[in-house]
UniProtKB/TrEMBL annotation:
Record InterPro entries: NLE, WD40/YVTN_repeat-like_dom_sf, WD40_PAC1, WD40_repeat_CS, WD40_repeat_dom_sf, WD40_rpt, WDR12/Ytm1
GO CC, alphabetical: nucleoplasm; PeBoW complex; preribosome, large subunit precursor
Similarity comment: family membership: Belongs to the WD repeat WDR12/YTM1 family.
Role according to the record: Component of the NOP7 complex, which is required for maturation of the 25S and 5.8S ribosomal RNAs and formation of the 60S ribosome.
Species for this entry: Glutinoglossum americanum
Main location: nucleus
Protein name per Swiss-Prot or TrEMBL: Ribosome biogenesis protein YTM1
């Protein structure tokens, strides 16, 4: 970095272009009087990064990425000028940010069966969240195909395990689970129920209990996805019965459970023969839904509340559609039809976009606002199998993480794009990092046919990226400022 940036790397000779460097980060900003700098057009990210470090007089070089017209520069300046029909007489404005840092493997928590879902409770959870003085008390909630919920601390200790069949527990595999508050949890699964639990920790925080509080009946198929809006005490559920359920956390708000959906009581002799009791043998109260929203024509795979209006919800389905709902009137507002079954959903609120994972191995970004006519704003490609779980980056408006049946999680920055090839026109997004399962780095399948599918993923500011999979593990990968902040 001994190069004078005004002639920038004097080698090799060739065309040059003026570049104005800007950044939104005060700690790495250049002096205010720094004007456009003449640089060789053959420079790529590394050469441009060297120039910024020289201008900042950095003792330790900082790797930078560069944005131009809102997208990452992934070519030389010359290639960019040619692709966009610009001459070397132009003045290019490059925004520089710290390069993305790969999340490193931290730990794995082992289960007895496949792990279908994970959630995190910490001081930075959107809602619910721990108090500011609860450092070191972060909790991971996992749901498993063995029908049990578990709450873990960061020392891989199980603090609490949910009750089993006959004691108010699930009678089949759990498919979704979330914290409602630091003292309540909601779960759902193949047994077609939504269940609310009280979570109580001991005063020394070394043990806890999950106690059944409420059983919610209304669905006639597996309940595969949940969304929670803590301030309004509302829960959304997505089911394979083609419906979206609305529920209240408060028992008294929910109507009587449909009697035809309640499990029948078995006789003592029948129970002794089958060695299995149903949840109706417990004393847990049963209630029905506030409403069941019907419009989808195939299993509903995922649902979220609108980040700007809790009276609005979005759902995606195997019927290829994203649907917008008014929860006050329990009515359908809008339908967007895509080319493939949609399996997962998350929001990017600062960009007014929804990200939907598909069975066709990609993620499609959709602007759900009524005045937008284009269905797909951008397509993110890179997975080799269905994208079944999504979570947004808690520290960046541009980032999200996806979990796939290809056994990986991928980190995306929607500003990282490249021209598409083949029949697809326009630009597509490309992942910036791939996280593999720690014990199967090459993606090989285990003996006995068990694979490494990722079923669930969560991204938390304190804990990092937490994923669940077919390898019977919750895996944690963490890196500080994985994404360049949008602030």
């Amino acid at each position: 970095m001994s190069t004078d940036p005004t002639v920038a790397a004097e080698s090799p000779p060739g065309a040059q272009v003026k570049v104005q460097f800007i950044t939104s980060h005060a700690d790495i900003s250049l002096p205010e009087n720094t004007g456009p700098i003449l640089v060789p057009t053959h420079l790529r990210r590394y050469g441009l990064s060297s120039i910024i470090n020289h201008l900042l007089a950095s003792e330790k070089p900082i790797p930078f990425d560069f944005l131009i017209a809102g997208a990452f520069l992934r070519t030389s300046l010359d290639e960019y000028l040619t692709a966009n029909g610009l001459s070397s007489e132009s003045i290019l404005t490059l925004e520089y940010v710290r390069s993305l840092i790969p999340p490193l493997y931290l730990a794995s928590f082992e289960h007895d069966d496949w792990v279908s879902t994970v959630d995190v409770l910490s001081r930075s959870s959107p809602l619910p969240q721990l108090s500011s003085d609860a450092a070191g008390q972060e909790r991971i909630l996992s749901g498993s195909y063995d029908g049990l919920l578990r709450v873990w601390n960061m020392s891989s200790q199980i603090l609490a395990t949910s009750s089993s069949v006959g004691d108010g527990g699930h009678t089949s595999s759990i498919k979704a689970a979330k914290f409602i508050s630091p003292s309540q949890v909601v779960s759902s699964g193949l047994d077609r129920t939504v269940r609310i639990w009280n979570y109580n920790e001991s005063s020394d925080h070394f043990s806890a209990e999950l106690e059944p509080l409420l059983e919610l009946y209304g669905h006639t198929g597996s309940v595969d996805s949940l969304a929670v809006h803590a301030p309004t005490n509302k829960i959304l559920s997505a089911s394979t019965d083609h419906t979206l359920g609305i529920w209240s956390v408060n028992k008294s708000d929910n109507p009587t459970a449909p009697p035809q959906l309640l499990p029948s009581r078995r006789s003592t002799s029948a129970r002794s023969k089958r060695r299995k009791t149903t949840s109706s043998d417990s004393t847990t109260p049963c209630r029905g839904p506030l409403a069941l929203l019907r419009s989808h024509t195939a299993p509903v795979s995922s649902t979220v509340f609108s980040p700007s209006d809790p009276t609005v919800a979005y759902s995606v389905s195997w019927d290829h559609t994203l649907r917008t709902w008014d929860l006050v009137t329990a009515s359908l507002v809008d339908t967007r039809t895509t080319s493939h079954p949609l399996l997962s959903l998350t929001s990017l609120p600062d960009l007014h976009l929804l990200a939907a994972g598909t069975s066709a191995r990609h993620i499609t970004l959709i602007d759900p606002r009524a005045d937008v006519t284009t269905v797909s704003a951008l397509t993110l490609r890179g997975h080799a199998n269905a994208v079944v779980s999504l979570a947004r980056d808690p520290e960046s408006a541009w980032g999200l993480v996806s979990g796939s049946h290809d056994g990986t999680c991928r980190i995306w920055d929607v500003r990282s794009t490249k021209p598409s090839t083949g029949a697809v026109s326009g630009e597509v997004g490309e992942s910036v990092y791939t996280i593999k399962r720690e014990d199967q780095p090459d993606g090989v399948r285990k003996v006995g046919g068990e694979g490494i599918k990722v079923f669930g993923v969560c991204w938390n500011r304190e804990l990092g990226i937490v994923s669940a999979g077919e390898d019977r593990k919750v895996q944690i990968n963490r890196g500080k400022d994985v994404m360049a902040s949008s602030e």
